[in-house]
Design a protein that fits this description.
The chain is α/β, with parallel strands linked by helices and 163 residues long. The protein is 39% helix and 20% strand. The protein is built from 7 helices and 6 strands; from the N terminus they run βααβαβαβαββαα. The protein has a 6-stranded mixed beta sheet with strand order 2-1-3-6-5-4, sandwiched between helices. A hairpin with a 2-residue loop joins strand 5 (119-122) and strand 6.
Length: 163
């Protein structure tokens, strides 16, 4: 990769937002991205609130980043609203990336099947929902990280047949 790709990492958690728990997944995602040549331009923590999360995703879409990675809010509890907020922002889903993350997660824990995380595009930006556990977030991201530069290139209008 000749140019560093820019990312934002958004932790979605009521308990982290309220200061009741330390954020483990956001920093783990930041570290993995940086180790792989990405520049993390923005990090933020928000509560599990559909309207606030959708507004934050829209704001980050205007910040010249190639991808926003969310951590948390992808399960089946009543407060888990990250996929719903993401759907309000993206214009196209990329189901294969979410399927790849769940497939990889199933190797370590059967509960990964409960993840409702989605991936998609908002303009030329990727939006990727990762699980809230640090290990789940890292494992999921590792499973798709090699594909992301090509996806970013295609979103920017690059040749899909270039090697």
């Amino acid at each position: 990769m000749t140019t560093s790709l820019r990312a934002a990492v958004l932790t979605v958690s009521d308990s982290v937002f309220q200061g009741k728990r330390r954020d483990g997944s956001g920093p783990a995602v930041v570290e993995l991205l940086q180790q792989n040549g990405w520049t993390v331009a923005h990090t933020r923590v928000v509560a599990d609130d559909l309207a606030v999360l959708a507004a934050t995703l829209r704001e980050l879409a205007s910040q010249s980043v190639e991808a926003v990675f969310t951590t948390g809010g992808t399960g089946v509890s009543p407060r888990d609203v990250t996929p719903e907020a993401t759907r309000k922002v993206i214009t196209r889903e990329i189901p294969g990336l979410a399927e790849q993350m769940r497939r990889e997660g199933a190797k370590n824990t059967p509960t990964s099947a409960l993840s409702r995380g989605i991936t998609g595009t908002a303009g030329q930006m990727l939006v990727i929902n990762l699980p809230g556990s640090p290990q789940g977030a890292v494992d999921s991201l590792k499973s798709i990280l090699p594909i992301l530069p090509h996806a970013v290139q295609l979103l920017a209008g690059g040749d899909p047949h270039a090697e």
